Amino acid sequence: MEPLKEMYSRDWVLGLGNQLARVDSKISPQTFQKQVLASPWKEMELKERINRISDVLVEHWPGPLSKIYPKLFQLIETLRSHGVSDFNFPYIFLNDVVTKSGLDDFDTSMKVLEKLTVFSSAEFAIRFFYKQHFDKTLKQMHDWSKHKEPMVRRLASEGSRPMLPWGIGIPEIKKNPEIHISIIETLWDDKDEIVRRSAANHLNDISKLNPELVLEFCKHKFGKTPELDKTLKHSLRTLLKKGNTKALGFFSYNTKWKPEKFKFSLSQKEVKVGNALEFKIYLSQNSKDKTKLRLEYKIGFRLSNGKHGFKVFQLGERMLLPSETIEITKKHSFAPITTRVYYPGTHTISILLNGNEYDMRKFELKRG
Asked: Would you call 354 exposed, middle or buried from its count of C-beta atoms within 10 A (0-12, 13-18, 19+)?
């Protein structure tokens, strides 16, 4: 799979230059392309490329933001008129222009981000304003949580997440994750799924810092609709994977349940990077009860320092009937992926049943 950074191809950058020239005739598409692709472009990662594009745009449109934002709005309308859809990730660099030209002009920046976030989400940009104008940004996010536009409401949740991937850290939010609970209270049952999903991700972030806060938030909210129960489950996914008894109890998983019989076997004790580890599970229920069963497996990946980092994977959920037996065969792929580096050596795998760990086995991961 081609790295995400390659979405900024030579043709794409030239196409952006052509659209910019429609807004500002002083911009030469070829010159813009040359400036963006200047060395060391090929070595730049995604965030560096986004930063380069915004830097070049700021060179052509130097601030202040109050002077240049009409051109940003005009560019968006030009792109839309040429078939570019909203919520379009490659154009996220437009929000960086705001942070580079408007950080000292809070009111104008908020007006601009409110528009830009609909076209390409501003959750990374808003965090720079938390850094410099914390209280004013916090108030703005509360106001945006009630906005008529769903992508603005989403920004109120997504941009304020305690552990937003790729986003700059905001120590005040990590230390006090409850500071945005009133925003999540407003948005967790939003009519728009993309807003609900963001609120669930925000709650999941908080659960890593203050589990009891999230458990307390969720406990009286179940049963409204199946869709909202699904949102709450997504909010609690980290606690569920950790086997938190309260979280599992919300979904009627009996954490004291044990199988009548249980067998777990690996098809091999060694696997090469690029191949898959196959394993089999056999378990049976007693003759009297039926049990709601959550099946997972946990792999202990060897890290560069020789220790292990653990990750839990889903095997499924089902109702296990009296005297029922089930057999599962599963393959876990060790094909290279961009989000994980595989280190050869001893790894572990175990099975989780309703949050309880069973029968850890070791295997060796070899270089492909």
From this structure: buried
Contact between 142 and 153 (Cβ < 8 Å): no
Tokens 């940004």 label which residue?
Answer: 137
Please list the ranges in the chain whose pLDDT falls under 50. none
* H-state helical runs in 44-145: 46-60, 65-81, 93-101, 106-119, 126-132, 134-144
Residue 288 falls in which region: left (phi positive, over 0), alpha (psi -120 to 50) or beta? alpha
Q: In the prediction, which pLDDT does 122 show?
A: 98
My answer on whether omega of the bond before 336 falls inside 30° of 0, hence cis, is no
CATH topology of domain 4-250: 1.25.40
**How are strands ordered across the β-sheet holding 261-266?**
261-266, 276-284, 325-333
The pLDDT value recorded for residue 337 is: 86
DSSP conformational letter for 95: H
Cis peptide before 40 (omega within 30 of 0): yes
* Architecture label for domain 261-366: Sandwich (2.60)
CA separation for the pair 50, 81 (Å, rounded): 23
Residue 287: predicted pLDDT? 86
Decide: 312 and 296 in contact? Cβ < 8 Å. yes
- Residues 98-137: pLDDT tens digits? 999 999 999 999 999 999 999 999 999 999 999 999 999 9
Where does 147-275 show beta strands of DSSP type E?
261-266, 270-272
- Write b or e for each residue in 80-114: b if 16 or more Cβ atoms lie within 10 A of its Cβ, otherwise e: eeeebeeeeeebbbbbbbbbbbbbebeebbbbbbb
Which residues are within 8 A (CB) of 11 and not within 5 positions of it... i.e. 6 or more apart? none
Give the pLDDT confidence score for residue 226 in this predicted structure.
94
Annotated domain spans of the chain: 4-250, 261-366
What are φ and ψ of residue 347, in 5° steps?
A: -115, 165
pLDDT, position 1: 65
